[in-house]
Design a protein that fits this description.
Largest sheet: 2 strands, antiparallel
Helix content: 40-55%
Shape: elongated
Radius of gyration: 16 Å
Structural class: mainly alpha
Strand order of the largest sheet: 1-2
Number of strands: 2
Strand content: 5-15%
Number of domains: 1
């Protein structure tokens, strides 16, 4: 099992709470990279607390949304809110 704490060196002058929060954020980003690896450059942009699904056409967007929400369900990830625009 990979422990992020073993692989990441943080500056010694940081507060332990700050270090803990940074490790949690890094863990989330690594999870998102792993789950959406094949889609990230193709139709998804992943930010710290956001995802943007981009498509060329409406039928393609529907297909991309199905793909993303399928992965979210598969890995039991629950989106806080979903907006379309």
């Amino acid at each position: 099992m990979l422990f992020i704490q073993d692989k990441v060196r943080l500056p010694k002058n940081l507060d332990i709470n700050v270090c803990h929060l940074l490790l949690i954020k890094l863990k989330k980003l690594l999870l998102m990279d792993g789950v959406f690896k094949q889609q990230i450059r193709r139709n998804i942009k992943v930010y710290e607390d956001d995802m943007v699904i981009k498509s060329q056409s409406i039928p393609q967007h529907v297909s991309d949304l199905k793909e993303v929400f399928g992965k979210l369900c598969k890995y039991d990830m629950r989106p806080k809110n979903a907006l379309s625009g």
